[in-house]
Design goal:
It comes from Novosphingobium nitrogenifigens DSM 19370. By secondary structure, this protein is α/β, with parallel strands linked by helices. It is built from nine helices and eleven strands. An eight-stranded mixed beta barrel has the order 3-4-6-7-8-9-10-11. It has a two-stranded antiparallel sheet with strand order 1-2. The structure holds ligand C2E and magnesium ion (3 copies).
């Protein structure tokens, strides 16, 4: 405990407030300076066409190298950035950086960027995306934004309007982590998705677990009937890939193909076959 100028005790933490909460508060403060301190970078994970094995694009994934803690997982810091509002600046940094890099790549390659549900609340989001594409010289059709279904709970009319505006730019929209959370079939047919990403939890279990296989099969059938391409994430083994091929999956991503990695400018990706 510390004293302020008037001799009163200031409580920096409540007795009982756990380590966890203090860590989060500290990370929240440090996140506000992470951009200017150059602590973020992006790694890229390839997405493949299953039939040919060709790379069709890359997903940008954010990394924070904290000066003392080292690498902090986005699963830990993104929720904090969402709570404190830092996500607006961070999300814009990610988009700008990913667009700038992807503009150097083979023009057949897409770049997928995760968009936080909170970013959909940003009043000038559509204008921001437009400006970033123009500044980077990236054709809109090469950008795909990944959102989870939690982005469209709440004011669905507003969300639908916004996603339509984004689509009108020519930018694609993927539903990420499908099968977890609030997934409803109604959302898939009401919203203009260009891709469904089956959550990795099902793909990882699917070889050994019949329920998980049934879910993968059902999502693939759904994609076929709604005519929305389905990508399986979290493909780690040949067995998992074989199962996906058997079930008619056309696109996949995962450690089997490649881990997310940093790209140096001289390693700008070109379209290559896997294997
Ligand atoms: P996500 O968008 O669903 O990304 C997939 C996650 O699965 C990534 O974790 C990726 O590294 C991991 N992954 C890929 N292949 C495999 C595999 O074969 N096996 C396993 N076990 N995991 C695999 P990561 O990079 O830690 O990101 C976690 C989550 O953090 C992302 O899930 C996304 O929700 C969020 N995130 C990451 N970058 C950003 C960002 O720039 N903005 C926002 N808003 N969220 C981000
Ligand atoms: Mg994603
Ligand atoms: Mg995902
Ligand atoms: Mg996820």
């Amino acid at each position: 405990r510390a004293k302020n100028g008037r001799g009163e005790h200031i409580c920096y933490y409540q007795p009982g407030m756990d380590e966890n909460a203090r860590t989060r508060r500290q990370l929240a403060t440090e996140l506000r300076h992470a951009i200017e301190r150059d602590e973020f970078h992006l790694v890229y994970q390839p997405q493949h066409a299953v039939q040919s094995g060709a790379v069709i694009g890359y997903e940008a994934l954010l990394r924070w190298v904290h000066p003392k803690r080292g690498l902090v997982s986005p699963d830990e810091f993104i929720p904090i950035a969402e709570e404190t509002g830092s996500i607006y600046a961070i999300g814009e940094w990610v988009l700008r950086e990913a667009a700038r890099e992807a503009a150097q790549w083979d023009p057949d390659l897409k770049i997928a960027v995760n968009l936080s549900p909170v970013q959909l609340q940003q009043a000038d989001l559509v204008q921001t995306i437009t400006d970033i594409l123009v500044d980077a010289g990236l054709p809109p059709r090469r950008l795909e934004l990944e959102i989870t279904e939690s982005a469209i709970i709440g004011d669905r009319t507003r969300a639908l309007h916004l996603l339509r505006q984004i689509k009108a730019l020519g930018v694609g929209i993927a539903m990420d982590d499908f099968g977890t959370g609030y997934s409803s079939l109604d959302t898939l047919q009401a919203f203009p998705f260009d891709k469904i990403k089956i959550d990795k939890s099902f793909v990882l279990k699917a070889v050994s677990n019949h329920q998980a296989t049934a879910i993968v099969r059902a999502v693939l059938a759904l994609g076929r009937s709604l005519e929305i391409p389905v990508l399986a994430e979290g493909v780690e083994t040949e067995e998992q890939l074989a199962m996906l091929v058997r079930e008619g999956c056309t696109e996949a991503q995962g450690y089997y193909y490649g881990r997310p990695r940093r790209l140096k400018p001289e390693q700008a990706p070109v379209v290559t076959e896997h294997g």
